[in-house]
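quick one, 268 residues, struct below
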Amino acid sequence: MIAVAVTIAGSDSSGGAGIQADLKTFAALGIYAGSIITALTAQNTKGVSAVHDVPPAFIAAQFDAVFSDLDIAAVKIGMLSQAATINAVAKGLAQHRARNIVVDPVMVATSGDRLLTADAVDLLRGQLIPRALVVTPNLPEAAALTGTSLARNEQEMEIQAREILALGARNVFIKGGHGDGGESADLLIGEGDVIRYSAARIATRNLHGTGCTLSSAIAAGLVKGLDLKEAVRQAKDYVTAAIAASRTFNIGGGRGPLQHFFKSGREA
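---
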């Protein structure tokens, strides 16, 4: 049986982030993936206008259907907008003994719209982060998870990442894309040395779904049998290239999507 991935996240009606970006990423990287939808959003490149949460019982039904039939080698978790959703997902992960869990702690959309209720943050810390092989916060998400201000440099990024490690995650990949300067630097922190990944910062408005794409690309590498360090490296390279290719996109009037298929779907 072929090993596959599953994405557990919200749907983006504009196609740039969430479930849609995840499935595009898996397809572009040659990985088959299933999906467990946690919420429906009415959104476009300019913002989110409405969120409809999937009932916990139906989330559980999706878990049972997917995990009972497919060989799930890695799990990517994205938007979980409310406490009941987090509880349902945590229960499903435990019941089905999910492995290689990549948690993207989605709290705010690229447009600035909040996607996680305030009362759900503690549950995210306590129920999901301890199950993660790797957590992939950007700078605002890391600040929210640690209750501190936005990291201003790599030293502060490392401090916040280690606070998230203390919550039980095995590794933290903290992303510096929201920082300043000509370089976008990320840090992978777990056991052993801090590993730094960097790329030139690309001037483009088309960044919608970047975090979703990166976490899915990491999960894709894990399905292929890569170790985490190499999965992160390949994911970083893929996302950087997808952002660069998006500069020719003119989709919507706000923050447009990445170009996931910049090699006509043959990145693998």
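The two ends are 20 Å apart (CA to CA).
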